[in-house]
Amino acid sequence: MSTTEPSAETASQGIKRRREGDDLPDYKRQRPNYVQPAFPRLRKLFTCLGEPSRFPLPESILHCAKSFTSAELDEEAIMNLFSLFVNISIEQPLKVFSLAAALQCVNHAESTHGAAVVKHIVERTQRYVDSGDWNNVKLVLRFLIMLKPIISNFEVVVDFIGRLLERAIALKKLSTGRNPLAEELYRVVLLTLPYLVVIDSSEEMKKKATEIVEKSKEFKQSSAVKAEELLNPFVDGEAPYRLSDSLELVQIQLGNLVEAEWDLQLLYDYSTIVPASDFEKHSIDKLQLPETLSASNRSTSPDVFLTFYTNQQVETTPAVDRIESTIFRDLLTDTIMNLSFNRQEVARQLIWFDNFLRPGLFAPRETSLERLSQAKPGTSTWKPEDVAVEAVLAGLFRLPKSLLKPVYFHSVLIEACILAPHAIAPVFGRAIRFLYSHLEHLDVQVIHLYADWFSHHLSNFGFTWKWREWTDDLNLNELHPKRVFIRELIHKELRLSFPQRISETLPDELSDLVPDRDDVPPFTFALPDNPYSEQSRLVLQNIRDRKGVDEFEDVFEEIEKKSDELNDENDARDKVREIFVTAILHLGARSLSHVESWIERGLPVLGVLYPEKNAESQRQVTKIIFKYWKDQTGTAVQVVKKLMNHKVITPLSVVEWILIDSDVSSLTKGHSWELLGFAIEKAKQLIKNAEAVPRTVEGEDGEEAGAKFLDEDKLKEVDDNIESLKSTLNHIFITIVKELSRPVQGDAKNEESVRWQRWWKEGFLRAVLRNYHADYKDLQEPLKNLGLTDMFIMNCIEQTAEL
User: Fold this and answer.
1) Can you tell which superkingdom this protein's organism belongs to (predicted)?
2) Do residues 370 and 428 make contact, with C-beta atoms less than 8 angstroms apart?
3) In this model, does residue 26 exceed pLDDT 70?
4) Per-residue pLDDT tens for 44-68?
5) 8 A C-beta contact, residue 408 and residue 343
6) Which of 44, 170, 362, 802 could hold 384 in an S-S bridge, CB 3.0 to 4.6 Å?
7) d(Cα 690, Cα 459) in Å, to the nearest integer?
8) What's the DSSP call for residue 200?
9) Rounded Cα gap, residues 118 and 658, in angstroms
């Protein structure tokens, strides 16, 4: 046996790798002692401050402060840490109170750090003021207020708040309608005032805050009443509670707080942690207010304060007239909006919401309504879950549109339910039932948002719901919002799953709403018993073989002859179009990527069959698509969008198909709402693309002259195209108003159906005029001159002018 090979016995037992020191007695191999660098360790400590921990909050705050003062940091790391503090105050405003307490402790141990932190915060505040980012001004200014104990000339902050209010009042007086910039400045002042008294409850500070509140009454909101009607999610004056513009509401709440002598106890008692004396205070620079200010994009329309947990056996959220309701909503909304890049973290902070505020301010989590109703007098019945979920729903149902995509709010709610199902699920159930019980009084857009959210939510939890609660509503009129909602909700579920799966979750009464469909609808024209079967199969083969336009002429002529022989009621050329488009749909029926590919193959022929100027034939395309995909309208919507993107059909033709070729019942269907919105956005995008066309060209052969303007003919062509597209967009809005203002036809026997048809038409029109008020503002007078006699429509047009 070779001496270099192990024996069979040794090989079977394995060979232990020998290391240096193995032969020494009691030898233990040392592992490297890894020490995390100072900055990452501090970043984690401060970022997690205030979250649930096995350590008490005072201990966590003191540990953060001690870690900061004892760490060896270079100048760059220190500045990064200061930037982190400001970012925390913006992205996670719930943590700013504990963070400020920790920095006060840092200042007690190392005053140079305290001075540098305060200076950095003032500089960042000034930067946001100069750039017009007023929401960040509000958040960083709050951070600065929380550091009042270490600021020697705090009157600088109070003076800045007063100057902001004066500028807001002055700007408002200069405008007859809404002034978004003035409203933003006013909002910053009102939402900052309570924190002045929270951090300093002295009589002197209360007096200053009261003076600012009295001064704020000079700000008059002239547009609040008119705009509120359009932004109200409840219509017909049937809201379950009195809705108010959020700024008007804060003014009322602050007035009530003044009457209560500023009795506001929100925060943990940090005086037990932060040293009361023997620390250095620091002077800050005066904050400057530029002569010219700019408004941010968050003030595009007024806000209406929404609540979803009213009229319950116990008060689970603060009453609307209490300032706490606005403070909690503001803190949670900023968390939801500014931390949108991490929805899991948003969901965690929503669940821990009460952890960042004063103990006892809320009832314990997961407390049932029954137990709350038996609570002792003086015990809080506010449920942190209700307050948190309500803030997300308010963001989702914000009109005219949410500040972030609706699917983001869906995802936050889903994450929250996954993290704390026992706490969140009952809260969802009450919100869902509240909305359902008021469906006939909800805005049409809110109904569609509600169906989108609920279907998305159910798809993440096995599509299970207590459907039997709603089965009696199947006896309502087919246009009643509750019956429509049930139908649309099931259809949206089908877009997220498959029929058999959905049928298993429904009671027998609702199973008829699930269509018995084929995954791939048949190409009926090619079936043996169809008179056009031979020609249809040839069309299919030609498309597969990538035949040119000329090579289709023979088969098209055969189809036209066949149509004449059969005395087809449709135009012979229409039959050609229907067969060709249906063939494209059938070939691409396997997936949306397939249909995209087959549409691209058929574009030359589609361009001949559907010339751009023939609006009626283009409307036929949408009709054919929905006829083929009648049981899968979600797929039909996506195909129509693809054809619009390829300019086979125009946005105007889609709008006309919805409003002219379809009956009123189509307005109750989700695909009509989705397509109408996409068509308008597409028309707007075409205008933007045309305006972005360069009007200059680079000089040839490296000429020193550089860029040159296009010649007059090309410039005129560009300008004419822009005007044509703008005219098309205007035509879309005029078509919408004209068609939706037509009287509903009906008789006395169908009085209820007529009432609901009118309800859907008015709701559709209100939503469109509200959502696109900025795009048709030049059409205000032309729309009024259409000869409209319906006062509802005239009022809507006038109200949108105030948005």
Assistant:
1) Eukaryota
2) no
3) no
4) 999 999 999 889 999 999 999 999 9
5) yes
6) 362
7) 40
8) -
9) 59
Angle between helices 633-645 and 670-691 (to 10 degrees): 10
Residue 318 scores a pLDDT above 60: yes
Higher pLDDT, 558 or 705: 558
CA distance 697 to 706: 8
Non-local CB neighbours of 252 within 8 Å, separated by 6+ positions: 244, 321
Mean residue pLDDT of the chain comes to 88
Based on the number of CB atoms within 10 Å of its own CB, is 290 exposed (0-12), middle (13-18) or buried (19 or more)?
Answer: exposed
Confidence band for 517, pLDDT divided at 50, 70 and 90: confident
Give the distance between the most distant pair of CA atoms in the chain: 110
DSSP string of 613-654? T-HHHHHHHHHHHHHHTTT-HHHHHHHHHHHHHTTSS-HHHH
Residue 556 has pLDDT above 50, yes or no: yes
Residue 231 has pLDDT above 80, yes or no: yes
Distance, CA of 752 to CA of 744 (rounded, Å):
12
What is the pLDDT averaged over residues 164-171? 95
Distance CA 163, CA 179 (A): 17
Q: How far does the chain reach from its first CA to its final CA, in angstroms?
A: 95
- Of 334 and 715, more confident: 334
Average pLDDT over residues 706-733: 85
pTM: predicted TM-score of the whole model, two decimal places: 0.90
Q: Are 474 and 509 in contact, with CB atoms under 8 Å apart?
A: yes
Out of 236-245, 413-422, 438-447, 649-658, which region has the weakest mean confidence (pLDDT)?
236-245
**Contact between residue 629 and residue 519 where contact means Cβ atoms under 8 Å apart:** no
Instruction: At 696, give phi and psi (nearest 5°).
Output: -130, 160
Contacts of 539-546 with CB under 8 Å at 24 or more apart are 539/579, 539/580, 539/583, 540/583, 540/586, 540/587, 543/583, 543/584, 543/587, 543/598, 543/601, 543/602, 544/587, 546/601
Which residues have a Cβ under 8 Å from the Cβ of 673 and sit 6 or more positions away? 444, 445, 448, 667, 764
Burial 344-374 (b: 16+ CB within 10 A, else e): eebbbbbbbbbbbbeeebbbebebeeeebee
The answer to whether 571 touches 579, Cβ cutoff 8 Å, is: no
* Structure tokens belonging to residue 125: 């505040």
DSSP letters for 752-776: HHHHHHHHHHHHHHHHHHHHTTTTS
Question: DSSP letters along 275-327, please?
Answer: -SSS---B--PPPP--SS----GGGSS--B---S--S-SS--S--TTSHHHHH
pLDDT value of residue 784: 63
Token match 């809404």: residue? 178
pLDDT band at 455 (very low <50, low <70, confident <90, very high): very high
Q: What is the DSSP letter of 175?
A: -
Cα–Cα distance, 715 to 172 (Å, whole number): 41
To 10 degrees, what angle do helices 111-131 and 96-109 make?
140
C-alpha 731/C-alpha 348 separation (Å) is: 48
Res 684 pLDDT > 90: yes
Q: Which amino acid is at 713?
A: D
178 and 802 in contact (C-beta within 8 Å)? yes
Asked if residue 189 lies in contact with residue 219, where contact means CB atoms within 8 angstroms, the answer is: no
